[in-house]
Amino acid sequence: MSDWTTHRIGTGHDGLAPFAVHADASRGRLVPEPESRTRTPFQRDRDRIVHSTAFRRLKHKTQVFVAYEGDHYRTRLTHTIEVSQIARAFARALRLDEDLTEAIALVHDFGHTPFGHAGERALDRKLADFGGFDHNAQSLRIVTALERRYADFDGLNLTFETLEGLVKHNGPLVGPNADSGHPVPPQIMAFDARFPLALDSFASLEAQAAAISDDIAYNTHDLDDGLRAGLIALDDLEALDLAGDILREVRARHPDLDPVRTGHEIMRRHITRLVEDVIATTLESLATHAVASVDEVRSAGRTLVDFSPTMRSQVAQTRAFLFQRVYRNPLVFDTMRQAEQVVEELFDRLVERPDLLPVGWSGAAEGLTPERLARHVGDYLSGMTDSFALAEHRRLFDDTPDLR
């Protein structure tokens, strides 16, 4: 593969590559609004996301380890900021719209429940008869309906391009290029009927950059948090092609470096190798396919922002290692099972007694059909932080587990 620094990308009048999304060509918003005199549409999207209630709640939502296990573990908010930083690096290197890339990165985890994937599994079971629960669909629901900050509309009224990136950052949802093993959540289909998001096409390079930044961030930082928690040791990284090679490189150059700094050195080099591989692979792919517009990106038939085959294999190996040694470690697994129980018990109690919901939520629950009531309670629970979910459980039950 050629050195990515040798590639040159032509730019338009706004300094962006021809295959980037250009703000002045945005497809607009569900509810039309006057243009800002000082910000592009994508800058407004980013600002609305950052100032939303859902963004603030990410501070107290679990990534892998519940916050009570230590102050230095990632939360959904710190993870989101890390994803955004990596995504902007891709946008700069590829001459994409940085503001759109950042907006998609910042909003991508809005729909996550308290206690991470444990809470999602619990709600998915409880809502199985009503379409299930999907955090990506919930993110869309939050930014199109549940955030209520503006006089003229529910949600944040984000642009087509940001919503498209949120919904399709992992690829098309329908059509020949969709993952047929995952049906489209009904919430996405319902919104698409109102404001079509071209669910059969690939998303922009900005969205693809945000998606692969998520992979890079959690693969690297879950290794880091696993080391910090004592679930894995530095020597365990020897079994990994990527991290093991970096470990040997660091030890050869700094033989007397203490373990903590060795870990930090490995992680920063881990991110650098992944990022540089993606830039080189993507530039080569864009050149090979002669991609010259965002429409050609959407119709390319494949993801263009990607790892090389060798690096993709190494990323998959790291992911499998994390599942075995961290995510399914008995200490983590037992805590997450208790967290699932907390969410399930809250759901059952509040569906049975919607009058126990707070003011506003309880009033809106009156007269709802069983399906709408279940979704209403799911919306309420999914927005909770870890600490608030435990506080609500203590309010409604005599025995609340200590998730440590």
From TrEMBL:
Q: Which UniProt keywords apply?
A: Hydrolase
Show the InterPro entries listed in the entry. dGTPase, dGTPase-like, dNTPase_2, HD/PDEase_dom, HD_domain, PHydrolase_assoc_dom
Q: Name one GO biological process term.
A: dGTP catabolic process
Q: Which SUPFAM superfamilies match?
A: HD-domain/PDEase-like
HD domain location is 76-219
User: Which PROSITE patterns does this one have?
Assistant: HD
One GO MF annotation is:
dGTPase activity
Per its UniProt entry, which superkingdom is the organism in? Bacteria
What protein family does this chain belong to? Answer: Belongs to the dGTPase family. Type 2 subfamily.
Mind telling me what this protein is named? Deoxyguanosinetriphosphate triphosphohydrolase-like protein
Look up and give the organism this protein is from. Answer: Aureimonas phyllosphaerae
